[in-house]
Design a protein that fits this description.
six-stranded mixed sheet; globular; Purple Acid Phosphatase, chain A, domain 2; 320 residues; 19% helix; alpha/beta
């Protein structure tokens, strides 16, 4: 693995508590086990997804508030794993706006976070696929290049190890002939993933994170159309059944995602598939379909059992 995250580990982490005012949404519990005693051999990390950072709607302050909330947890998480849609947005904006948003994201993390961060890419982080503002395929930062350059990544997918677990951060955003994008893993990345799984010690537990979910109940439509329940190819990754089998065969225990701005936790073939809501809630306009602005805490026990909980951080949207 070749990965650089220069600058992401050197946050200041000051001003703790300055953004923490505001009441929590009544429908969600307080951090019900955030103060639980974890064994020294277990560990905790957080999954914060769908930040959609922008200068508008106090989004940057919201992300900062979320970061301070995360760092005030007891026990403190070992690291932050993001889930994509970091900015709002690159897909349909010109270079200047997209570049500014990535810089804003980096500044907020630099100024308000001291934890290690591993970033995952979402559809809104892909530059120019909407072909708006005069952006064409010939642009030197077109597609995923801007994200990789800003995040100092050689590829939008990579792996890292933490306390006996292996984490695979995958790129689930693929081009589509009919839509702006579709969910899935491209062939080259899938080859890499299969090779990495084969190289991983069989008994070593693992987790994956994708922006677009492989398995989630949040996409289920209320009613059938022409005798079918239909799910868009941009809502879920293609190849869910094969992926679930592959994960089960290789001791991958956890599959985290974002994209839906809703929360679920599905157990299938021994794997926990969890969709972690959104830091931005309804894109910084309040609660989305009953799911408030929040992030997920994942506690791994010494026996490698997974405890997953979604935590609102008490954000009050400026408009709803
Ligand atoms: Fe999103």
């Amino acid at each position: 693995m070749k990965l650089t995250r220069r600058g992401w580990f050197a946050g200041v982490g000051a001003l703790v508590g300055s953004w923490l005012s505001g009441s929590r949404a009544a429908t969600w519990t307080e951090e019900r086990s955030s103060n639980s005693s974890l064994s020294v051999d277990g560990f905790r990390f957080v999954h914060m997804t769908d930040l959609h950072i922008q200068p508008e709607l106090k989004a940057a302050q919201g992300v900062a508030a979320c970061l301070h909330h995360i760092q005030s947890l007891n026990p403190k998480p070992d690291f932050i794993l993001t889930g994509g849609d970091l900015i709002m947005d690159a897909l349909q904006q010109g270079e200047e706006r997209a570049s500014m948003l990535f810089d804003l994201l980096k500044k907020v993390f630099r100024d308000h976070n001291s934890l290690p961060v591993y970033h995952c890419m979402g559809n809104h982080d892909v530059f120019g696929w909407g072909k708006k503002q005069g952006v064409t395929e010939e642009h030197p930062k077109y597609g995923k290049k801007m994200y990789m350059e800003k995040m100092e990544l050689e590829r939008p997918y990579y792996a890292f190890d933490h306390k006996g677990w292996r984490f695979f951060v995958l790129d689930s955003v693929q081009p589509s002939e009919t839509e702006l994008y579709q969910g899935g893993i491209d062939g080259l990345q899938m080859d890499w993933f299969r090779q990495e799984l084969a190289r991983k010690p069989k008994e070593m537990p693992a987790a994956i994170v994708t922006h677009i979910p492989f398995i989630t109940v949040t996409v289920l439509p209320d009613s059938a159309k022409e005798g079918r329940f239909q799910i868009g190819s941009a809502s879920m990754c293609a190849g869910a059944q094969q992926m679930a089998q592959l994960l089960a065969d290789n001791n991958v225990k956890l599959a985290l995602s974002g994209h839906m701005h809703m929360v679920d936790e599905v157990s299938y073939r021994g794997i926990t598939f969890a969709c972690s809501g959104a830091v931005s809630g309804r894109w910084w306009k309040g609660v989305h379909k009953g799911f408030p602005e929040g992030y997920a805490i994942i506690d791994i026990s010494p026996a490698n059992q997974i405890s997953y909980q979604y935590i609102p951080f008490g954000w009050q949207a400026v408009e709803s």
